[in-house]
């Protein structure tokens, strides 16, 4: 079953990466390049803020994953420039690196896990749990403020004139990243009801939900824990014997 999951997710992200690549090529061909001032409408600006907050969350995982800063910087630059094309490419690459045993055992766990941690070397600890909570709380509030301001100043986003070709392409890019984050949420949550709840919030509120979810998960960790433990489900943490992990399940909906 786990092996099927690994193959399935690999195929899904290959397809999604191709979809976004085709979307970008088509939009350039039909609407020109995206670096034009007139494209920066209020809702495009709000969408880009939303998009890049999610990129920051995904980028933080990539920095944790990579064994050296050079490769991490290269991937982050690609992530900033190409968005979910890079997200999909990176995820597929991580699945391809799994050994047969890892694919059978717990593929998502091993995809999330850093190479250095996997091979028993010292884990990376750059930020404290408390400071990471603050960072994502601020980012969530920033996006919430942006959303409220844009609605107040430019009206509803559900208008035909808002949906320009490049905003449509950006939304495709945005929601492919949401798919990646949703897979993580589904892996993290202990039951499908809570997973579906969070995924619906992700679809509706984007990076506000991303930030809120990360902050909630960080409150499951003690101040002495490594921040990277937020990536893993409580089951994976207990099975792999991480010390300092609080013996509490994820928040669930009754």
Automatic annotation (TrEMBL):
Signal peptide: none annotated. Pfam families: DUF1475. InterPro entries: DUF1475. The keyword ATP-binding does not apply. The chain crosses the membrane at residues 6-28, 40-63, 69-93, 134-152, 164-187, 196-219. Keywords: Membrane, Transmembrane, Transmembrane helix. It comes from the Eukaryota. The keyword RNA-binding does not apply. This is Uncharacterized protein. The lineage of its organism: Eukaryota, Viridiplantae, Streptophyta, Embryophyta, Tracheophyta.
